[in-house]
Design brief:
mainly alpha; 12 helices; 0% strand
Length: 258
């Protein structure tokens, strides 16, 4: 019983220390100790609270306050701020939102929340293209499905070359320079492909055995099959040797003069 009381006392001391670390005065600590353990809803704002209660509310909701501050810094007016919070002046359904054009505030909010990076990437992609067809191929892909026997077009080859094909060709050329013959090149290429795909195969190709006993039984079965096959081969060899020796003995008997 004493051990239980000691553990409870230690837990109470630990909780009191954690509460004291969050308080700036004895009055705040007393308030928190009284309200500790009570199930209460966290209000959305600190209106009507005392100074100590507002400080406690601020410390509990600090991540949400930082998120709201970032939204405020990204907005140029109150309407944009409300849009970033997910609130509109009038209730609007998704179908109505898709059926109308974006407002200036919504477009500006999209631009500040990642649209700028997307536009810069699209600009870099456009600089790599020589015509609109290449740009459409790099951004949206082919308009129709490719046939199995269809030869890649010049634009598709250029897209592949600029989207990583150059590194593949350089790696192939370096491998060809480092090898002395075709067989060595082929073995090195296959080994690199196997090593690059090893981790994916280990993480996707799972064993069908549920435990070690099933795996041991499988190995024992394979071992027995190999031993049976080896015994059959040995029996065939013994029979052939026996037949050859009997034929040779009969031949020598027939050749002996009477």
């Amino acid at each position: 019983m004493a051990l239980v009381d000691r553990e409870v006392a230690g837990l109470e001391y630990k909780v009191e220390r954690e509460l004291a670390a969050q308080c700036g005065s004895w009055q705040m600590l007393n308030i928190m100790k009284k309200k500790y353990g009570e199930k209460r809803e966290n209000p959305s704002s600190c209106e009507g609270m005392t100074r100590s209660e507002r400080l406690l509310w601020y410390r509990r909701n600090q991540p949400a306050i930082e998120l709201d501050d970032s939204r405020v810094s990204s907005s140029s007016n109150y309407q944009q701020l409300q849009l970033s919070r997910g609130k509109r002046a009038e209730a609007e359904s998704e179908d109505e939102k898709l059926g109308r054009d974006e407002t200036k505030s919504e477009a500006l909010l999209w631009y500040r929340n990642g649209g700028k990076v997307m536009m810069e990437d699209e600009k870099d992609t456009a600089n790599l293209c020589g015509n609109w067809k290449q740009f459409h191929l790099m951004t949206r892909g082919r308009a129709e499905e490719r046939d199995e026997d269809q030869v890649p077009t010049r634009s598709e080859k250029l897209h592949w070359y600029r989207s990583g094909g150059l590194a593949v060709i350089d790696a192939r050329d370096n491998l060809a320079r480092d090898t002395s013959n075709w067989m060595q090149y082929k073995l090195t290429r296959d080994r690199q492909a196997f090593s690059a795909n090893l981790e994916d195969r280990m993480n996707t190709s799972w064993s069908q055995f549920k435990n070690k006993n099933e795996l041991s039984d499988h190995f024992a079965e394979q071992r027995n099959e190999e031993m049976d096959e080896r015994e059959k081969i040995r029996t065939q060899v013994r029979n052939r040797i026996s037949k050859e020796s009997m034929a040779k003995t009969t031949y020598e008997i027939n050749r002996q003069p009477r």
